[in-house]
Amino acid sequence: MNAAPERVEHQMTDKGYVPIYTTAVVEQPWADYTETDHQVWATLFERQRELLVGRASEEFMRSKRAMGMTADRIPKFDDLNRMLRAATGWELIGVQGLLPELDFFDHLANRRFPVTWWIRKPEQLDYLAEPDLFHDLFGHVPLLMNPVFADYMAAYGRGGVKAHAIGPEALVNLTRLYWYTVEFGLIREPEGLRIYGAGILSSKGESIHCLESAAPNRIGFDMERIMQTRYRIDSYQKTYFVIDSYEQLMEATRPDFTPIYARLAGQPSHPAGAVLSGDAVFNRGTGEGWASEGDV
Ligand code: PHE
Ligand code: CO
After folding, report:
1. Calpha distance 182→184 (Å, rounded)
2. How many A from CA of 118 to the centre of ligand 2?
3. Is residue 114 part of a domain?
4. What is the pLDDT of residues 143-191, one digit of tens each?
């Protein structure tokens, strides 16, 4: 068995009670992965590969292939890094787990994506309360091959450093943006709605739920709306926001957020499942939208 991840403490955050790990960058202990570790990777990889055909963003599928990620072995960060550096200048660094916010932002701003080195146990295939190697690597890394999305992630890191200096409310606004795009985003493609958020891509249940279930709202991307919308950490999302393109995401987030944070300060937030007047609500098959009539 591998060395256990080094947990430092637990900390109460807006995401609940989470473990905080050492911030040190660690070498991926690739030779120490057990057969069970590789099997967990293979099982999850195969399951999502099948499920995500016709569900994941074309760009994600293409990038995953281009990187040469396969089911048979846990990929080596060094191998992926050669591809990533050449494509977009990003690199993966190994970490023990979730990082304090400022450390995380600083890595992103410098095009370093922290990847948890350890993988979940076989009895945790369907749910894990914190990111592991499968979520970080399979969910987040392929889209870093896309130049526009790669720029968005670095800009988010710089924005995080800034929001952190402004204060906790700004940080909450910005974190919601990350949650509803990088983790749980949907994109409208010619064939219909598709997944690009890593929190969905690494989850079997949510990959189906987000597109097929009648329960959640699927609402057109609206930056300030997202910044004011709470989210669920303990269940599937009640609302997904849909972008038209990665360019749209990049352009919408280009302006300086400082005046936006100031305007939103002290305003009440929307419940995770709210539908508001003015929301563009989508259904799956056609990706066609219509204006909603208000709260339902
Ligand atoms: N433009 C944002 C700011 O001024 C930074 C940002 C870019 C945030 C992209 C998120 C995504 O803070
Ligand atoms: Co994640």
Report:
1. 6
2. 14
3. yes
4. 999 999 999 999 999 999 999 999 999 999 999 999 999 999 999 999 9
